[in-house]
Design goal:
It is built from 19 helices and 21 strands. It is an alpha+beta fold. The strands form four sheets. An eight-stranded mixed beta sheet has the order 14-18-17-16-15-19-20-21, with helices on one face. The protein has a six-stranded antiparallel beta sheet with strand order 8-7-6-5-9-10. Strands 1-4-2-3 form a four-stranded antiparallel beta sheet, with helices on one face.
C-alpha cells in the first residue's frame, strides 16, 4: 500500500518524505502536520500492487489544516468515490485507507522510472500532476554511459544525478523496479511522494519515424525500387563509415539490423527511423545526438531506447583511445580521401555515360550496378566524415559569408548558358542530372532539348544574377562546399542506377518476365535480383475497373508528375494519385487512374468529398492526352469526344 511504502522510506533519513498519518477519524491529529495546506490521499493495495496498478483511479484533494470541516468533507468525498469504484472492480472497501499528508511547495516535479539499468524521468514545472496530464517540459534517459536530455533544463546535471541515485536506493530497499513520484523543493531537495512497482515496462523497442530532413530529397510517395535502393545505400555506407572508424565487421554483423533500419517506408513515404540512428551513434564515443538532431532538422522527440542487445559493441575504454587516434589520422588524410572518391566517381562517370547499355548482357548490367554500389558504399564514408565535422563545427558558423559554393554556381551557369557564354554540353556534364525529385528512380530524366528548358533559359537571359567573389578559406566553408559538391555527384549516382534499371526492365519485357518496363519500379531491389537470377514470371495485373460515385464528364489533364498546370481542366487522369496532389481536388469533377484499390488514399478521400473516381482504367495514359474531353459511364466505360459525339476509347 502507498502509505506503508512511504512509512518505510520515512525511516531512511536520506529521503525527504512529507509528514503524514492514516486518518482514523481524529481531526485533532491534523494539527500536528507542519503545513497550513494539507493533502488528503488514498492508499489501496490494488492501486499500487505488484501485479497491477490502478494509478490515478482514486482522487486526492487539498484542505486547510485549520478548517476541520473542509478536511472532513475531503475525506468523505474520497471515501464515497472509492466505494463506488471498488464496487465496479470487485475490490475490498475494507482494505481502503485515507491518509493526510503535509503540503510541500515545489519548484518542479514528475515521475521517474528505474528498470534494470535503464533510468527515465519526465519533469514538469507543474509537478507530477502536469506529467500525468502530458505536460512534461523535460525528459531524461540514461543507460550506462549513454544519456539523452531534451526540452528545457528544469533540473541540472547534479539534481538529475541525485534523483537517479535516490531512485536506485529506493529500488534496493523494496527490491522491485520502481515508478517514483517526486518533487524538487526550493533547496533542490528531492521529495518522494509515492512509490509503486512497475507493472508494465515503459521501455519498449519501437520505431520512431521522422521525415523532416529526408523528405527534402524524397518528397511524397516513392516507388518500392527507390526505397529498397535507398535502404541498401544507407545501410552499406554507414557500415563502411563504422568500419573506417575502427569497428570490426564481426561487431557490425551483430547489430546488422540497426544499419538496415536507418530508413523506413511507411505509406509509400521514406522516413528516418530515429531509434536506429541513435543506436548507431552509440557506436562512436561521445554524445552525438544533439548535433545529429540539429543536422537533420529533427525535433529529436524520443525519450528512451532499448540498447540491451548492443552491450557487446558499445565503446570500450581501449576503443575510445583507439577511436580518437583514428579521428586524428582521418584529419590528416581527409582531403586525400575526398580526392580519391572524387577521382573514382569522375572516372566511372566518364566511362559509364559513353557505354552502349543495349549490348551488355542482362547479368552484366546487374553486375555493373552491384559493383558500383559496392565500391561507392565503401568510399562514400568520407562524405559522412565531412557531415560529421559540420555537425561538430557548424553550430555557430556564419553561412551568410559563404560565397561561390558549388551548387549555387548552377544558377550562374544557367545565366551564362542563356547568354551564349557557356555550352549546353558543359552544363549537362556538370549539372545535367539535377531535376525535380531527382533521387526518385521512377522519375524520368529531364530533357534539356525540350521547350520547357528553353523557357527556363529565356527567363535567365535578361535576368540580373549577382556574381560574388568566392569567399576564401575557413574550415566550415570547405566542408559545406564539399557537401554541396557531393550532392551533385549523388544525383549522378541515381542517374546511373536509373539508366541501368530501365535497361534491365527492357530486357525483362523482351523475355516476357515483365508486362511493361515501368513495372520494375513496383519491385524491390532483391526482387529484381531474384527475377534476373531465376527468371520468375511476373505478369501484368488483371485490373478490375471500379467506379466510386456516379458517371462524370469534362476536359482532362494527364498528370504524370506533380506540377501546377496552367490549363483549366475538370478531370485528372493519372497512373496513380499521389497524396501530395490533394490540393487539386477542390474543383475536379472526377478522377481516372490506372492503379489503386478501395483502400487507396485517394479512394478514401474521394468518398468523403463525394468526388467520382474510376480505378483500374488500364492503358488510359496511352489512350488519352491532355485536352481530350471524355465521359465516364456508370459501368466504368470511358467515351472520348471526337468533336461531334462520344465514342468508346480504343
Amino acid at each position: 500500500m502507498k502509505h506503508q511504502r512511504l512509512e518505510t522510506l520515512r525511516n531512511h533519513r536520506q529521503f525527504r518524505v512529507p509528514e503524514f498519518f492514516v486518518f482514523d477519524g481524529d481531526l485533532e491529529a491534523v494539527r500536528e502536520l507542519p503545513s497550513e495546506k494539507i493533502i488528503v490521499r488514498s492508499s489501496y493495495d490494488f492501486e499500487d500492487g505488484d501485479s497491477g496498478s490502478f494509478a490515478g483511479i482514486f482522487r486526492s484533494e487539498t484542505a486547510r489544516r485549520d478548517d476541520p470541516e473542509s478536511v472532513r468533507g475531503a475525506v468523505d468525498s474520497i471515501l464515497a468515490d472509492a466505494k463506488k469504484k471498488l464496487a465496479k472492480i470487485g475490490g475490498d472497501f475494507g482494505r481502503f485507507h485515507v491518509f493526510l499528508q503535509e503540503f510541500i511547495e515545489i519548484e518542479s516535479g514528475g515521475v521517474a522510472f528505474l528498470e534494470g539499468s535503464k533510468f527515465y524521468a519526465e519533469i514538469s514545472v507543474s509537478g507530477s500532476h502536469g506529467v500525468v496530464n502530458g505536460n512534461s517540459e523535460q525528459t531524461y534517459f540514461r543507460q550506462g554511459d549513454f544519456e539523452i536530455r531534451q526540452g528545457m533544463e528544469i533540473l541540472d546535471s547534479k539534481t538529475l544525478a541525485n534523483l537517479r541515485k535516490s531512485v536506485t536506493e529506493i529500488h534496493k530497499i523494496f527490491g522491485f523496479d520502481c515508478d517514483v513520484e517526486f518533487g524538487i523543493a526550493e533547496s533542490r531537495q528531492i521529495c518522494v511522494f509515492q512509490v509503486r512497482p512497475i507493472t508494465r515496462s515503459p521501455f519498449e523497442d519501437r520505431r520512431i519515424l521522422d521525415d523532416s530532413n529526408i523528405g527534402e530529397n524524397y518528397p511524397g510517395e516513392v516507388s518500392a525500387l527507390t526505397f529498397s535502393f535507398v535502404r541498401k545505400l544507407y545501410a552499406e555506407v554507414y557500415r563502411s563509415t563504422a568500419y573506417h572508424s575502427g569497428i570490426s565487421y564481426i561487431k557490425l554483423a551483430k547489430i546488422s539490423n540497426v544499419f538496415d533500419d536507418l530508413v523506413a517506408w511507411k505509406g509509400g513515404i521514406i522516413h528516418y527511423d530515429l531509434a536506429a540512428w541513435y543506436k548507431m551513434l552509440l557506436l562512436f564515443p561521445g554524445n552525438h545526438k544533439a548535433a545529429f538532431d540539429r543536422m537533420i532538422g529533427s525535433s529529436g522527440n524520443i525519450n528512451y531506447l532499448v540498447i540491451d542487445d548492443m552491450a557487446d559493441v558499445l565503446p570500450s575504454f581501449f576503443y575510445r583511445v583507439k577511436y580518437w587516434c583514428i579521428v586524428i589520422g582521418k584529419i590528416f588524410t581527409f582531403r586525400r580521401n575526398l580526392n580519391v572518391l572524387e577521382r573514382y566517381l569522375q572516372n566511372f562517370y566518364g566511362d559509364f555515360f559513353k557505354k552502349d547499355l543495349t549490348v551488355i548482357p542482362l547479368e552484366g548490367l546487374h553486375a555493373m550496378l552491384t559493383g558500383f554500389v559496392r565500391d561507392l558504399s565503401f568510399l562514400w564514408y568520407v562524405t559522412i566524415d565531412n557531415d560529421f565535422l559540420i555537425m561538430k563545427f557548424g553550430k555557430n558558423g556564419n553561412l551568410g559569408e559563404m560565397n561561390g559554393l558549388f551548387s549555387a554556381n548552377q544558377v550562374r551557369m544557367l545565366h551564362r548558358l542563356a547568354n551564349g557564354e557557356a555550352t549546353l554540353e558543359s552544363y549537362v556534364e556538370t549539372y545535367g542530372h539535377r531535376f525535380g525529385d531527382e533521387l526518385k528512380l521512377e522519375n524520368p530524366e529531364f530533357d534539356y532539348g525540350s521547350p520547357e528548358f528553353q523557357t527556363i533559359l529565356a527567363k535567365y537571359k535578361d535576368l540580373e544574377v549577382e556574381t560574388k567573389e568566392a569567399s576564401k578559406g575557413g574550415l566550415l566553408r570547405f566542408l559545406i562546399n564539399n557537401r554541396e559538391k557531393f550532392r551533385i555527384f549523388r544525383s549522378k549516382n541515381f542517374s546511373v542506377a536509373r539508366r541501368v534499371f530501365l535497361e534491365i526492365a527492357r530486357r525483362l519485357v523482351q523475355k516476357w518476365l515483365l508486362a511493361e518496363e515501368r513495372q520494375i519500379f513496383d519491385l524491390s531491389l532483391d526482387e529484381v535480383t531474384d527475377l534476373i537470377a531465376s527468371e520468375a514470371r511476373i505478369l501484368a495485373k488483371d485490373r478490375k475497373r471500379i467506379l466510386l460515385g456516379s458517371g462524370f464528364e469534362g476536359k482532362i489533364y494527364v498528370m504524370e508528375h506533380f506540377h501546377i498546370p496552367k490549363e483549366s481542366y475538370d478531370i485528372v487522369v493519372a497512373k496513380s494519385f499521389d497524396p501530395g496532389w490533394t490540393i487539386f481536388l477542390g474543383w475536379l469533377k472526377g478522377i481516372v487512374i490506372e492503379n489503386g484499390n478501395l483502400l487507396s488514399h485517394i479512394s478514401i478521400i474521394s468518398r468523403e468529398l463525394n468526388l467520382p473516381l474510376l480505378i483500374g482504367a488500364e492503358w488510359v495514359l496511352w489512350a488519352l492526352k491532355t485536352g481530350d474531353r471524355i465521359r465516364v459511364e456508370k459501368n466504368g466505360d470511358i467515351l472520348l469526344h471526337n468533336g461531334t459525339s462520344y465514342e468508346p476509347v480504343r
